[in-house]
Amino acid sequence: MSVPTTAVQAESAQVPAAAAPFVVNERVRRKLRRERAARAVFALMVALMLLPLFSILAYLVIKGAPMISWEFLTTNPKSGMIAGGIWSALLGTIWLVVVSLAVSAPIGVLAAVYLNEYARDTWFTRTVNLAVLNLAGVPSIVHALFGMGAFVLFFGMGRCVLAAALTLAVMTMPVVITATREALGAVPMSFREACWNVGATRWQTIWRIVLPNSISGILTGVILEISRKAGETVPIMFTGAVFYRNIAEGDLFAYSLREQVMALSMHLYTVTTQVTGVPEALPFAVATVLIAAIIGINSTAIVFRIWLRNRKKW
Amino acid sequence: MSARKKIEVEDLRLSYAGKEVIHGISFDIREHEIFGVIGPAQSGKTSLLRCINRTIEFSADARTGGVIKVDGFDVRRQNVFELRRKIGMVAPLPVGLPLTIYDNVAFAPRCSGLNQKGELEGIVERCLRQAALWDEVKDRLNTLGTKLSGGQQQRLTIARALSHDPEILCLDEFSIAIDPVTTMRIEDVLKELRKSMTIILVTNLTQQARRLADRTMFLWNGEIIELDGNGVIFSEHPKDRRTYEYVQGIFG
Fold first, then answer.
1. Which residue of B93, B146, B160 is in closest CB contact with A198?
2. Fewer CB within 10 A of the end CB, N or C, for chain A?
3. Model pLDDT, residue B204
4. Rounded to whole angstroms, how far apart are CA atoms A101 and A93?
């Protein structure tokens, strides 16, 4: 037996042996060993997860950082894309993300509100839910073909910002719907019942209670959506992104909805595989900017979300 | 006591997923009475209340039969939101909405379109006083209702149920989370409130029904065992032996 136990027993001689507190026997030690083992396994997995993440980031930044400058960000690619900056691609990505978000975020969030708050549990809603979940897993090439068939050809938009943004919107909508539904589902049912009990309509309940308390979760969905939109190459390649465009440098409105655009993801693909004589650092610099842009947009949303979560009221 | 019927229940049946839990019960509740409902768990007390204010419709697998009339009108033919405004409902577990204390009480009036500040303040104070909570929270009306203690939240729930001027107040085990002293204070309030409204008091505490109610209904396994004035139900000789045994604590 362990020493401390004996000491305790010796000190409190009045206490009957059967009621001796804090006995560390073999069973307790086995329990503690398992606890330590479980903790070690989980910690190891965190390490395995962080390793590639930081390796990629470090690799990109180390290789690409020397090339990144204000000038790199604000000038168009030059000399068959082996020189100059990435302005037209950077702005193109921003345009695609913003336009696409303006379509998919409201539709996705509001559709999720309907599915979660209004729809009864019928075979139809169950089918819709299943479709949404499966749609999230459809490869982007399929969305690309759909976008080309529907927006570019059928609706006659041609290859342009609008068609590409709509394709991205369709592709990422399931993400925002699923995340929003989870956020809404996390609001306790008792809150809704309390509202209904005093004669509040569903809309009053949603507007005054459900949405204010699920907004941070909804934003998480939107954040995920932004990242996915900014990173996709194939869907926009088919529907509106081009290899090269020369636009007014420094003008945020150098693109319009019906024009073709460059995009960072596509540009990365181009300079890596389609052009010869590219400086070695260029693809890394493009990738670094792409990741920095995504992190930048995300962190704005994350800060906003933290602010909202601190106001959480139960 | 007015003899006018406030609520009429005719052959009410309720089943969840095909399993019947209320087996065709009929009774009346008179205006301005305190109507006690006692009975062991699973006897259908809460379900009965949910049928009256139609929140039962949120249970997808619930099916009802029979008719419930409020003021002579079938509840299912009325606008459900107006119906629920007529009926204040206090659930057994307190639910503070994630709003300030003030907003919790002002919630229902606001939902019916009332926005005038002075009027809202009046309602909030009156309801919090009626729920015996005003003195404890009057200096911090702008703190969160969810941060109150359980018993305070329950009184907040009562204040909210009173805030839309209900004609009927349903209390479902309101005193579970409240200490005896506060319970007594609220019971006094109920005696006062009955002048202006009809009260349905569902309770596990038979003594509470005995103290407060005019008539008490003993519900057991979805059937009415006995419904009579308290003088009979809580006497030595109610009509049904099971009532006597339940009230005396011999079974149930």
1. B160
2. N
3. 87
4. 12
Instruction: Answer yes or no: do B91 and A199 touch at CB < 8 A.
Output: no
Q: Could you tell me if B161 lies within 8 Å of chain A, comparing CB atoms?
A: yes
ipTM: 0.85
Distances (CA, A) of B158 to A307, B6, B47: 32, 21, 19
| DSSP symbols for B82-104 | HHHHHEEEE-SS----SSBHHHH
> At A96, which helix (H) or strand (E)?
helix A87-113
Task: Compute the CA torsion angle A25, A26, A29, A35 (nearest 10 deg).
Answer: -130
CA dist A88 and A96 (Å) reads 12
Please give, rounded to a whole number of angstroms, the shortest distance from the CA of B54 to a CA of chain A: 9
Question: Which strands make up the sheet holding B223-229, listed edge to edge?
Answer: B87-90, B168-172, B198-202, B34-38, B215-220, B223-229
Enumerate the residues of chain A whose CB falls inside 8 A of the CB of residue B157.
194
Max CA separation in chain B (angstroms): 55
Measuring CA to CA, how many Å separate A150 from each of A131, A143, A239? 19, 10, 10
Selected residue of A198, A202, A207, A211 to mutate for chain B interface (largest B Cβ count, 10 A): A198
CB atoms within 10 A of CB B123: 21
Considering chain A, what is the average pLDDT of its residues?
Answer: 87
Give every CB contact of residue A265 below 8 A, 6+ residues apart in sequence. Answer: A93, A230, A231, A232, A233, A236, A290
Residues A15-32: tens digit of each pLDDT: 555 666 787 888 889 999
Token pair of A255, please?
């693109």
**Residue-by-residue DSSP string for B226-249:** EEEEHHHHTSS--SSHHHHHHHTT
> What's residue A15's pLDDT?
52
Predicted model pTM: 0.81
User: What residue type is A265 in one-letter code?
Assistant: S
Look at residue A312 and tell me whether its pLDDT is greater than 80: no
List the structure tokens of B113.
């379109």
Q: Which SS3 state, helix, strand or coil, does residue B137 take? A: helix
Q: What percent of chain B has pLDDT over 70?
A: 98
